[in-house]
Structure formats: structure tokens, C-alpha cells
Amino acid sequence: MSKSVICDEYRTCERGFGIIEIVVSMLLLGLLAIGFLPLLMQSMRVSATNATLATATQLVEMQMEQIRDLDPTCQTLKTFKPTPPTDIRLTATVDVVCPAVGEVQTARVVVSVSDATGVVSQAVTLIYVLS
Question: By 3-state DSSP, what share of the chain in percent is helix, strand and coil, each rounded to 5?
């Protein structure tokens, strides 16, 4: 059985790649892939964190809009129940501090969205209330 050898007009012959060259190139590519694996894992973690933050921020904004649409009395603000988030890992809370008699008639409203690690997004606003 004869080997096929390709020669050009200048009598330089090429025999192609041997098994050793292929194994060495696969080893180098594997080492390169192992080097990029931590970078890929970190980017996936950051992407998940950013998605959670974006969802929490949207939820805070939605709760704030609903509170602003309410009747501006302390009783109404205090009985407001936040809309449950669609993401079951998040919880929304609304804290209302009404003014004392004789103070400026603004209620301080804090809307927070948290997950298992703590507060993800929070907003504070003042709402003028009727006496």
C-alpha cells in the first residue's frame, strides 16, 4: 500500500497533519477553553443579577405609580397592599409614615423590593395628604 504524497512543481512535498500535531492542538485549545471558563461563569452570574435588579426596579416603579393614584389620605396609604411580584424570589413592602398633627401634611412612603440576600431596589417619596 502506497502513501499519497502531494508534490508541487518545485518538488516540495506535503504530507498533511500527523496525529501528534492534532493531539497537541487539541490540548492547547482545551487549555484555552479552561482559561475562559471562569470568565463565562462570572458573566452569567452578573447577567442573572442584572435581570433581578431590572425586575425589582420595575416592580418598585409600578408600586409607586399605584400609590400615587390612591386617594391622598393617610388611612388609604396605610392600607395599601403591594402587588405581589411575578418573580417568586422577590417580595415587595410598602412603609408609610404619616405626619403628626400640626406638621407639614406630607406622608413619607418607602417602597422596597427584596430577595433572600436583602434589599434589591428601594424608592422613597413624599406624598401630600389631606387632613
Answer: 40, 25, 35
Dist CA 77 CA 127 (whole Å): 9
Name the grid cell of 65: 405609580
Give the whole-number percent of the chain exceeding pLDDT 70. Answer: 87
What count of residues does the chain have?
131
pLDDT digits (tens, 9 = 90+) for 8-63: 666 666 666 788 889 999 999 999 999 999 999 999 999 999 998 998 899 999 99
Distance in angstroms (rounded) separating the CA atoms of residues 103 and 97: 12
